[in-house]
Specification:
The protein has about 1350 residues and is α+β, with helices and mostly antiparallel strands. The protein is about 35% helix and about 20% strand. The protein has an 8-stranded mixed beta sheet with strand order 14-13-17-18-16-15-26-25. Strands 12-19-20-21-22-24-23 form a 7-stranded mixed beta sheet. A hairpin with a 4-residue loop joins β41 and β42. The longest helix has 25 residues. The N and C termini lie far apart (about 120 Å). Pfam families: 2_5_RNA_ligase2 (PF13563), Exo_endo_phos (PF03372), MJ1316 (PF04457), PAP_central (PF04928). Belongs to the poly(A) polymerase family. It is found in: Nucleus. Keywords: ATP-binding, Ligase, mRNA processing, Nucleotide-binding, Nucleus, Transferase.
Length: about 1350
């Protein structure tokens, strides 16, 4: 037939009255007689055939009756005579019209071939008859005899091919084919197929040539020309589609509680009278908050052939279920990757009646109730189909949705595109669209190109189909994020440099596409709030980005590893998957991208999947294992409703932490060349020795651990914890209920940006007073200095400093200087470090004295910075680079109004967060960050604007409430404002002056021009240039402050020089006040004569070694003077006189201070000199003097903090020691002296011990006891024991040293009395 429509022009080919003696050979593979099921039965079959059957594109689903068949030129004759065989067979069997043939393909079988296997479906009951009878009739009609024995006909419908029959892939595939629903239909025709022999795109495809009707009107039907089978079935049955159902929009499945299984869509007609209820439910399903979670649950790649492996598999499934039901994982929409048939059947199948009461059944039921809608039903359900792939994506949801499959170029890869009609703003036509992705795995040129193509496919589809809808794209992106992994792949030749550029561009696609406005939820959530609740505390000591190229060990982070979701270092399951010699670096594979469209706002972000198999003992899964090799990710979104009330909006925003983060920071790239090469900055920094060596870092870590062990009185780090240190028995032990003592590093070392010469700042937080802590600390440090266990660290106390900011100990461990401070805060210590991330600034727990908050500020700033900066490794490297530049240019000295560590941190974090929000994390390398940093602050208006973290939630809320003034009220005296994150003292640049700000502006502009305009050729050239030489020649006149010391005590010399340097700040202020028309720039370091520097250094070294002889130290501070362009000559003369006056006053102030200045061993002078009078100066590179701490030096008897805070819980022996010391100051009365001494008994147990015993002993009723305590004004009062507050921060807190007695209510008996030394609880005392 010429027309594609076979029906109107079909040519009848009635059976001939007698068989033809013609017997055509049945050898042609170009033709076939086949049975084809009705097309409405194709989707589940083709869903598998499209992936696993090599003949999918050439054959429809079919059962061959005769194949090979006759030659194409013999088809007409064959079709004409074949029905005669059927008639003859019916006559012999006495069948007038022939029995109807009904097939039910309900079983799975496998044909083994030499190189592969064929997996098929067949009819278990009709294996021999009547299909075999029909085949025999057709063969006889063509003059052929049926097969003999051993060649019996096996009717089957091919689904897939496999290779190794013993492999897990083959076994999984057989199980998958076995899960297909039964295919049942009545056979009414035999189709005649012929292969397309043309050279077009359809070459080799089987087409419909005709058919043989088997009903009452037995005969052949021939089409003039072969026709595509799709067109034939479209005309005859109205069917449209490709037969696999993948491109069709499908409704989500919903669980019917009454029927006990999953149904698609509504699952039947709605009951009458439910219209109003339905409307209410519809309103309820339009949420104010929306949470979306994604997790790669790790498919089982090994088939569970044994009972042991099956038990282990089910145990892991139970562990996954427990994680999914954990509070950190529950979401409105859940995306799962690598889902298998067995896992989904476990997760969604209703339990059998015999197991409904088991805990696991209850968990499964809870999950079903929590997620009533799913994209795929359990394959074990009779009417359900198996999942199409080995590794599948499944969506579970609280809200109804529809979905379709978007295939990628690679087989088995694609995206589930889901639309949620009830989740939208005010326009139902612009509802949420979610794209679930699982991109190609691997780091090769081919796989990276595939990932890029897959992302382009998703972007193109969403732009075309849903241009105005809000989007969420989530799943396993499989984008290698670790810079170390990428660098190693390039070195090993696995990927090219062009592929690295492609990899970095994939994430930027969402930003570079105009008008998309897609944001990374992790970046936004982390930048504002951190990653939510941290699941596992990450030790500061184990995070460092400065690792040798060949080393992988430890918990150090490289660029791109922050926020990792695949971590073989910490996740043993991931380590097993990687195997030995694999990529063991953390990767941020799993992501959630959001296109808000003014409907969705990103809020909190967290990871989940941290519940281990601790409670799975005896159930087949290894103890301590995680459930998957990935962590899951979850994001909380706020759904913006324009017609919502302000109170509703505020409530939803508060719950979600949602934010609309806008930033003016622009990405500026370095010019093409060496400056723009990835890794070029790191190489330059390594060449300039800016990074501390591994040995130096290890030495600092060991020194800190030694200090921590000493202060906590625990065994040294290299000593077994089962063997306590010597004399530890004499040390007081902390009671079990007393809050812990926290020892934590702060500053540059804790942030991971320290240098080889940096001090280590340490903060101790505990429950007792400052005086008690330092008494204890000094005692333990002195003992450790003589202990062999710490001999390698040489611990020394340099001095104790008491100031308005509190007490500090200067220590030395392994020749590394430590500054130790203490903060008495019992509640903070008890909840450390979780309280830092869970208690925002307005929380009542921070209602502490200003001095306490000042000491906690560094730790709080550090915690927030580390939790919110996009990538710590990149940030650290940039921080070190900026500091190195600032030191070289003479603008790194916070005390002189320049930059310090905190200013660089705030300024850099602001730029980095802004860039990451605009272009993603991977699009911002350290080179781009550096150039953008200098560009931003070169054009910054320092006089009007403030530098602060604009995405910080509390700053953002204040700005939205009342503008910049609400964030911080700047005074006219503040020349520069750089705000930290926490108070008190928000402005970290209070020391800045007009002239220091001018200096910074000039240096920022100079650096910007060098980098952007290409005035330097390399990063090394940019960093290594010292500004000191230019400073020495850049001014006509200088203020020169000479300092000299020749005394015997190096500590006094260092103290004098340090004090003089601190007073230079006041000189700068005085000069600006007296001579405002003169620009003054101070270089923040000392200069020495070049000719005598080396000789003086040798002398100092010799005297330091010998320990005798005076030390003659001479140096100078320089202040460059430059006249303002608007200053007249007369004003300059007046200014010079004012400068001379200021210098004279400065000299008098220094020399008149008897505490620091001693004319017998020190001298200073200040004068104005010309450039030619400076001489041959160079920077002083020697370290400051230090000396051993001696008792009484810089020591006071009291501390200002003692009057502010009461002791919360003192160690007993220290309490007595302090008490005796205080009592010793007052003379005893005659009455006290004459009072007879009682014989001592066992030491009275403390009030804290008694209180804990009464509260926690199960044999004692705590409600039957009261506490008698001394009120300062009312005398002895009583309070119920259960009402007694032990938290120091509680308003009703009463120090335990005021407790007088404990009394039993029931009989009035006093069971413990401090004065009478009575103790009926423990039997101590008298």
């Amino acid at each position: 037939m010429a027309s594609p429509d076979p029906s109107p022009e079909a040519q009848e080919a009635a059976p001939k009255p007698s068989p033809s003696p013609w017997t055509p050979p049945l050898t042609s593979t170009s033709t076939a007689l086949a049975l084809i099921p009705p097309p409405h039965l194709w989707p589940p079959l083709n869903a598998l055939r499209s992936l696993y059957d090599k003949a999918y594109h050439k054959w429809p689903p079919h059962i061959n009756l005769v194949y090979p068949f006759v030659k194409p030129e013999d088809l007409e004759d064959a079709v004409a005579v074949a029905p005669f065989g059927i008639l003859e067979g019916r006559r012999k069997r006495n069948e007038e019209r022939g029995d109807k043939i009904r097939l039910k393909l309900d079983s799975v079988g496998v044909f083994e071939h030499r190189k592969h296997n064929t997996i098929y479906r067949y009819d278990q009951e009709q294996q021999q008859s009547p299909l075999s009878t029909l085949r025999e009739d057709l063969l006889r009609g063509l003059g052929h005899q049926p097969e003999g024995e051993g060649k019996e006909y096996k009717p089957h419908l091919t689904i897939a091919q496999s290779e190794d029959r013993e492999s897990s892939a083959h076994k999984f595939l057989v199980e998958k084919v076995g899960l297909l629903p039964a295919v049942e239909w009545e056979v009414e025709e035999v189709w005649v197929l012929v292969r397309d022999q043309s050279d077009g795109p359809g070459k080799g495809k089987m087409k419909v040539w005709g058919k043989i009707r088997l009903g009452e009107e037995l005969g052949g039907e021939v089409y003039g020309n072969p026709v595509e089978w799709e067109k034939v079935f479209e005309v005859e049955t109205g069917w449209k589609g490709d037969g696999d159902g993948q491109g069709e929009v499908q409704e989500a499945w919903r669980f019917e509680e009454g029927r006990g299984f999953w149904v698609r869509g509504d699952g039947g007609e709605k009951k009458k009278g439910e219209e109003e209820q339905e409307e209410e439910e519809k309103e309820a399903t339009t949420p104010e908050l929306l949470s979306i979670a994604s997790w790669n649950v790790l498919a089982d790649f090994e088939h569970s052939s044994s009972s042991t492996s099956t038990i282990e598999q089910e145990a892991r499934y139970r562990l996954i279920l427990r994680n999914l039901l954990s509070p950190d994982a529950k979401a409105d929409v859940l995306l799962l990757q690598e889902v298998t048939d067995s896992f989904l059947s476990f997760l969604l199948s209703p339990p059998s009646s015999s197991s409904t009461s088991s805990p696991i059944s209850s968990d499964i039921e809870a999950l079903r109730r929590f997620y009533p809608y799913v994209s795929h039903p359990p394959p074990s359900q009779p009417d359900a189909s198996p999942l199409p792939n080995f590794l599948n994506q499944v969506i579970l949801s609280k809200h109804p949705f529809s979905w379709s499959w978007l295939p990628f170029a690679r087989k088995h890869k694609g995206s589930v595109i889901a639309q949620f009609p009830t989740i939208h703003g005010n326009n139902p036509d612009q509802s949420l669209v979610l794209a679930a992705v699982h991109l190609s795995h691997g780091l090769t040129d081919m796989t990276v190109a595939a990932k890029k193509g897959e992302m382009q496919r998703v972007i193109g589809h969403l732009k075309e189909k849903y241009p105005r809808n809000p989007w969420v794209v989530a799943g396993d992106f499989n984008l290698t994020s670790s810079s170390w992994t990428v660098e190693q792949a390039v070195k090993q030749g696995k990927v090219s440099k062009e592929t690295v550029v492609t990899l970095n561009s994939i994430e930027r696609m969402w930003r570079e596409e105009e008008g998309l406005g897609v944001e990374d939820a992790w970046v936004v959530g982390r930048a504002a709030l951190g990653e939510g609740l941290v699941q596992e505390e990450e030790e500061v000591m184990n995070i460092d980005d400065d690792m040798d190229e060949g080393e992988e060990g430890g918990n150090r982070l490289f660029a791109g590893e922050q926020g990792s979701t695949y971590d073989p270092i910490r996740n043993d399951v991931a380590a097993k998957v990687v195997g030995s010699g694999g990529n063991m670096r953390p990767q941020r594979y799993d992501r959630i991208l959001v296109r808000g469209q003014q409907v969705l706002r990103i809020g909190r972000f967290n990871r989940f999947g941290f519940v281990r198999a601790d409670q799975e003992k005896g159930e087949g899964y290894e103890m301590g294992q995680y459930a998957s090799d990935h962590w899951g990710v979850r994001c909380l979104l706020k759904v913006v409703q324009q017609d919502a009330t302000d109170q509703t909006e505020k409530t939803a925003e508060a719950k979600s932490g949602a934010a609309t983060l806008e930033t003016s920071i622009k990405l500026v790239k370095p010019p093409a060349g060496p400056l723009s090469e990835p890794g070029s900055l790191k190489e330059a920094m390594a060449e300039l020795n800016i990074f501390p060596s591994q040995g130096e870092t290890a030495k600092r870590k060991a020194a800190f651990q030694a200090l921590k062990a000493i202060l906590l009185d625990t065994p040294p780090p290299n000593q077994s914890p089962h063997h306590p240190s010597t004399d530890s028995s004499s040390e007081p032990q902390r009671p079990p209920t007393q809050p812990p003592l926290i020892i934590t590093p702060v500053g540059s070392f804790a942030l991971g940006v320290h240098t080889s010469s940096s001090d280590i700042d340490v903060l101790a937080i505990g429950p007792f007073s400052t005086s008690t802590f330092f008494s204890l600390a000094i005692q333990r440090l002195r003992r450790a200095s003589s202990s062999p266990s710490y001999s390698q660290h040489q611990p020394r106390i340099l001095r104790r400093i008491n100031s308005s900011t509190g007490t500090m100990l200067e220590l030395s461990f392994s020749s590394i200087k430590f500054d130790l401070q203490y903060c008495p805060a019992a509640h903070i210590a008890s909840h450390w470090p979780r309280i830092l991330s869970t208690a925002p600034p307005g929380n009542a727990v921070w209602s502490l004295p200003a001095l306490t908050l000042t000491k906690l500020k560094a730790a709080r700033d550090l915690d927030y910075l580390k939790r919110t900066v996009p990538d710590l490794a990149v940030f650290r490297q940039a921080h070190r680079a900026v500091r190195s530049w600032a030191k070289g240019r003479g603008v790194y000295a916070q005390r002189f109004g320049y930059l310090g560590g905190i200013q660089i941190s705030v300024m850099l974090a602001r730029v980095y967060k802004g860039l990451a929000l605009r272009g993603g994390v991977s699009g911002v390398g350290v080179e781009e960050l550096m150039v953008s940093f200098f560009e931003e602050y070169a054009q910054f208006d320092w006089e009007k604007d403030m530098v602060y973290d604009e995405v910080c939630p509390w700053f953002r809320q204040k700005r939205e409430k009342g503008g910049e003034k609400e964030v911080y009220r700047r005074t006219g005296r503040e020349a520069m404002v750089v705000l930290g994150w926490f108070g008190p003292g928000l402005n970290t640049s209070g020391q800045a002056s007009v002239w220091s700000v001018r200096t910074l502006k000039e240096e920022f502009k100079r650096a910007r021009d060098m980098l952007v305009k290409g005035e330097v050729k390399s990063w090394k050239e940019f960093l290594e240039g010292s500004g000191a030489e230019g400073f020495l020649t850049g001014y006509k006149s200088y203020v020169k402050v000479d300092v000299q010391y020749w005394g015997l005590s190096p500590s006094k010399g260092a103290q004098f020089v340090g004090w003089l340097e601190s007073r230079c700040v006041m000189l700068l202020v005085d000069l600006h006040r007296r001579a405002p028309g003169v620009y003054v720039r101070m270089w923040p370091a000392r200069f020495v004569e070049a000719d005598t520097a080396s000789q003086q250094a040798e002398t100092d070294e010799q005297t330091a070694t010998e320990g005798t002889g005076p030390r003659d130290y001479q140096a100078s501070y320089l202040l460059g003077l430059d006249a303002d362009t608007n200053t007249s000559k007369e004003d300059l003369k007046l200014a010079l006189g004012a400068i001379q006056t200021a210098l004279q006053r400065f000299e008098e102030a220094i020399r008149s201070d008897d505490k620091y200045f001693d004319a017998s061993n020190s001298w200073m002078s200040a004068s104005v000199v010309k450039r030619s009078e400076l001489g041959n100066l160079q920077l002083d590179t020697r370290n400051d003097w230090v000396d051993e701490y001696t008792p009484g030096e810089d020591e006071s008897d009291s501390d200002a903090e003692d009057d502010e805070e009461e002791e919360a819980s003192l160690l007993e022996d220290l309490d007595e020691a302090v008490s005796k010391k205080k009592k010793g100051k007052n003379k005893k009365t005659t009455e006290e002296q004459q009072q007879p001494r009682l014989e001592p008994g066992p030491k009275l147990r403390s009030a804290a011990d008694v209180m804990n015993r009464l509260r926690w002993d199960s044999a004692i009723d705590s409600s039957d006891y009261v506490v008698g305590y001394e009120d300062r004004f009312l005398g002895v009062k009583e309070r119920a024991l259960d009402m007694w507050k032990t938290e120091q921060t509680d308003e009703e807190f009463i120090p335990q040293h005021r407790i007088v007695y404990f009394k039993r209510r029931s009989d009035g008996q006093v069971v413990w009395d401090r004065k009478m030394k009575k103790d009926e609880i423990f039997g101590s005392g008298l």
